[in-house]
């Protein structure tokens, strides 16, 4: 009986620990619709000279359509070239098994980085937001394979981001495992 109690206690604490990763930023459900969005997670950060670049992901599920919201931010005292996406923009995730997963743009219009200026730090800041839906092609591999490269093919060229096993962010002072992002967070949506 004592062993069963400890086993139950272990299973309960294990499932609670897993649910901590699944705290939704938005979790709304009505009779006919639902929206679930996980909080933003940094997956790439580069600080080189006066230029900082970072990429963050948010997984979402809206009425059964699973997607990825990306935010690409650049800061520099130098001029920053605009990045634009349109309906033909795609994201390719290169996996550790050599396979590739493709995401397609969910928005059917052109969207370019907005330019802001921070007078305090004297930095130009460009921000790009995009929403991409998963295709069925090789999607299953995301549950078990790490992602080592994110390639965003845009109107204005390609942006490549190498995802490391560990990221110690200078910006938000957190440590994460970007290459395991999908392995960790897809189960939050019952996938």
TrEMBL record:
Entry keyword set: Signal
Domain of life of the native organism: Bacteria
Signal peptide: 1-17
Protein name per its UniProtKB record: Secreted protein
